[in-house]
Amino acid sequence: MDDVSAFDVDYEGEIPDTVDERALNRMRRLAWILDDCVRVPGTEFRFGLDPVISILPVIGDAVAAGISLYIVVESANLGVSYRTLARMLGNLGLDFAVGSIPYLGSVFDFLFKANDRNIALALADLAEPVDADVETAFVDVEIDEP
Predict the structure, then answer these.
(1) How many Å apart are CA 27 and CA 75, to the nearest integer?
(2) Confidence of residue 59 (pLDDT cuts 50, 70, 90)
(3) Which residue has the higher pLDDT, 134 or 21?
(4) Are 16 and 128 in contact (CB under 8 A)?
(5) Residues near 9 by Cβ (< 8 Å), separated by ≥ 6?
(6) How many helices (H) and strands (E) does the chain have?
(7) I need a surface site. Which of 31, 69, 80, 139 has the fewest CB within 10 A?
(8) Residues 30, 19 contacting (CB under 8 angstroms)
């Protein structure tokens, strides 16, 4: 498994220690399987099982969306905000709706990668901002004694 594509997601801040790391790893692994597990030889382009399952219009997309819901449910269990969960569901809805269109949907499924997007949204929501100015937040005060 290519660790860079599976686990390197851009987000600001740090994931708190209270977040279940095993749950995050399960979510990331599922997203990798559905969106990135196969690399096209001679290129950097990757795809997963989602577009393969989605070759069957509507039925395949419904199955892929059902599997992808795990990431949303696990994100809710980890404490992701309602707004982010709504955006994640929107990504799945768009993936299902456009992916159900014969031919066009298959191309869309290869390119959109809703699960990768949802992992990035969840991590960004869970991350605590890093305060770069921690050292400057404290001021040394010297008191002159008489």
Answers:
(1) 8
(2) very high
(3) 21
(4) yes
(5) 116, 119, 120, 123
(6) 7, 2
(7) 139
(8) no
Sign of CA dihedral 80, 75, 52, 37: positive
Q: Which residues contact 59 (CB under 8 A, 6 or more apart)?
A: none
104-112 and 82-99 are packed helices; what angle lies between their axes, rounded to 10 degrees? 150
Q: What pLDDT is stored for residue 56 in this prediction?
A: 86
Query: Which tokens is 36 given?
Result: 């990135």
What's the token pair of residue 107?
A: 């191309």
pLDDT of residue 114: 95
H or E stretch covering 39: strand 38-39
Give the mean model confidence (pLDDT) for residues 110-137.
Answer: 78
CB 55 within 8 A of CB 106: yes
